[in-house]
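Journal club prep, shared notes

We agreed each person brings one worked example of a sequence with its structure written out as tokens. Mine is Phosphoribosyl-AMP cyclohydrolase. I'm keeping it raw so we can talk through how to read the token line rather than staring at a rendered picture. Sequence first:
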Amino acid sequence: MSDVFKRLERVPTGTRESLDTILDSVGWNDAGLIPAIAQQHDSGEVLMMAWMNRQSLKETLATGWVCYWSRSRGKLWRKGESSGQMQTLKAAHLDCDGDTLLLSVDQTGPACHTGRRSCFYVALAGDGATVDGDTLIDPDQLYARS
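Then the structure, token by token:
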């Protein structure tokens, strides 16, 4: 944990730091990424987990349109740019050690590339797994725009 996040443990509510100071202290992994969990702002539903780098996080904070880093494509990925299923940022929080982001978002339609509302639709229990989320949009139609 960085000295900055260690110091923040004991400061009063309302204490401010510059964005650059915080981003310089974030626990980016070896690839310069941090996990970002997207949660629907009004229901608390966990929608997805993706990765952000410094550039995608700064863009998200500046524009309000959630932007991730696509590891498979090796480039910035603005959520909804190919499917139309955008995420609008409502709030962003770092965890106490500065190594995970929680994004409070307003999700348009499904968040998952499978056409489901959430990426977390495989429920594990006992000795099995059960799909517990309906497909809202056929994935072939979801990405027909791209």
